[in-house]
Amino acid sequence: MRGYNIQVTRGSGGPLAVAMRGLASGDIPWGPGHHEKFRRRFDHTVQALAVCEDLPEEHNRVTLDPELVDSDGIPAPKITYRLSDNTRAMLAHGLERGKEVMRAAGAVEVLETPLLRPGGWHLLGTARMGTDPERSVVNPWGRSHDVRNLFIVDGSVFVTAGGVNPTSTIQALALYIGDRIKRNLANLFDD
Amino acid sequence: MANATLTDAQRQRLAALLDTILPASDDGALPSAREIDLDAYLDEQAPEFRDELLWILDRFDDSLPGVALDRRVELVREFSVGHPQAFRSLVFRVYDAYYQDDRVRAAIGARPGPPFPGGHSIPAGDLSSLEAVKARGKGYRR
After folding, report:
1. Domains in chain B: boundaries
2. B142 contact residues in A (CB cutoff 8 A)
3. Shortest Cα distance from B81 to chain A (angstroms)?
4. Is residue B23 within 8 Å of B35, Cβ to Cβ?
5. ipTM
6. CB pair distance less than 8 Å for B30 and A23
């Protein structure tokens, strides 16, 4: 089992987010019972999220949809994503540790959401960075192995998903690759 | 104005529907959703929802405003089962309008900034908490 991160956030969004999330989970009903439940949740909630490092598993991929096309007939991307046993084990482990943390902190009620379907399932990888053209798509400074004037600067160059939210890493990669392009301008497209 | 497009009967059904989804709180601190200005909300933020709202209102008959809350809840629940997508859209719009209402926000203690009382407020323009980050220098490898 590889690593994951428990991300603790204060509150759980503004009132609309709290009400809608409560509606989806069945925890805060519409109708006569709404206000009492809402008051118990709003401004009285801490969340612990297990953010897991999905490994580069071949069953997770992006392909061209065989049927769905846009108005110009161009196939839509089709995302295939399935939780591996490793990721499920991390989520289960993180859920238990999160509940321990909450109880130790004095929570009066602990709710759990094993799989947060509307949560941030970040789409990362598929154009991994590496030195070997047989096993990666871009080189260590983001240039495509196959198309030398193509640079890929986004979350697709990740080798694994990482165990944290990815934006800061994507920003760092953008700075890093931009810097590499600038420094290697004279021989940018050489081998 | 949205209500200008509604008949009197539709307007009464709308009020009953709003009062069923979010009735006033028992202690009176929170108003019924029928008391908020849904019309202004739709004008400003969700004009595209008007047609769907009319369609929803026409799924109920004129007896709705006259029945007790418990029975209205049953009727709305039946609608939610038969038309889950439309019901979710309706509830989202009602909640969105309701929780932007000044009286409601004051009653629930909603305010801009961190959600916990006395916690971690940062004066506008004060970037001093970033000093430690800036002092670390660039973190990526060259």
Report:
1. 2-111
2. 179
3. 14
4. no
5. 0.79
6. no
State the catalytic residues of A.
Answer: 122
Q: Which residues of A40-66 are buried (b: 16+ CB within 10 A; e: fewer)?
A: ebbbebbbbbbbbbbeeeeebeeeeee
Interface check A121 vs B, CB under 8 A:
no
pLDDT, one tens digit for every residue, chain A (191 residues): 568 999 888 777 789 999 998 998 888 999 999 999 999 989 888 889 898 888 888 888 899 999 999 999 999 999 998 888 998 999 999 999 999 999 999 999 998 887 877 666 788 898 999 999 999 999 999 999 999 999 999 999 999 888 888 999 999 999 999 999 999 899 888 87
What lies within 8 Å, CB to CB, of B25 at 6+ separation is A35, A36
Q: Are B115 and A11 an interchain contact pair (Cβ–Cβ within 8 Å)?
A: yes
Smallest CA–CA distance, residue A173 to chain B, in Å, is 8
Report field, pTM of the whole predicted structure over 0.90? no
